[in-house]
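Listing S7. Sequence submitted for prediction.
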Amino acid sequence: MKTVKRTIGVLLVVFLVMSLVACSKENVSIAVKDKKNPVLSEKSEVYSKFHKVKDAAQETYIYAKADALEKELAITKSKLILKDESIKYSDKEWEICEIYDSVKVKDNTSFDGPVVKGIVDEISEKANKENYIIIIDETIVRIEKLFNSSNKIFKDASEKLATAESDLEKPKQEFKKAQRDAGIISEDLSICKPVIYLYPTSITPISVSLSEPSKIAHSYPKYENGWNVIAEPNGTLVDQNTGRQLYSLYWDGKNYSPTDMSEGFVIKGKDTINFLEEKLAILGLSEKEAEEFIIYWLPKMENSKYVFVNFRTTEEINEYMELNISKTPDTLIRVYMDFKTLESYIDIPEQQLIPVTRTGFTVVEWGGCQIPQN
């Protein structure tokens, strides 16, 4: 009996020892596991942050790429703007319409955010969402394919435009020849006394240039690839090349084509002052600018029995000579007066003038041309 009890006791001791050992191992395992868990958690958090940053970077890249393509297309489109006046001289309207139709195709292909996002979403559904490189690569391929397609349209349109402009040149020259033969224009007819005033809202350096310097006959200060001045709000200018103080920029031009006299005003010469004061105010000239205008033209008009007068539109003036200004004006006023002295009254439709209100940075230019009697 004692032997049995001793045996049972030994077994109990062994059992207890084994239990303690097992518990110890389990605790060690738990401890190790507890030590590993923060590490795994940290890795998971870093991984998550990495993907968030990566996703944001990739999305930014895609939109930046699309924006760059959009700007490139905008530049291409701006080169394909066809001047409306060219239609006057050509019977090739169908080519011009075809060019406009090509431009309209581009208008329906916009590289804005929603379009790009739609492409990304569509590819994301098919691709493994963890494989962002595939998504990006496929997206860029799709965008570039879209761009190349639109670019081809513009390349074709550009070629058609070049052909159309080339074909327009002959009708233009024939039209001008017909005008010369009819005595309407003369190759040595001049646009006289255009002067340019600048009125910025604060003291500002400004560069001014003319689109066709070959037509300039005289200028002051001397025109050398344009004028560079410091302009003050009161109109005072300082020539940056010479340091001289000016109140305007002067030039006059050659090879000018005056109006065809299809509309305008016919006034008595003795009414010139009242007429010009009224009309120049409508067109936006200040009293000081109008005074200089009237003083220059009055001796050429006042002593005539009648005078025909037409004020050219900005579009017509730009066709002859565009004015390029480094800082875009809020208000641009260009007044070119064509006039012809008459021995008797003629009845023509009266020209409708659009009133001008000056706001912000204002640029004013005035000039004119006396149409010869022949």
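Caption to Listing S7: primary sequence and predicted structure tokens for the chain studied. The radius of gyration is 40 Å. The chain has a mean pLDDT of 74.
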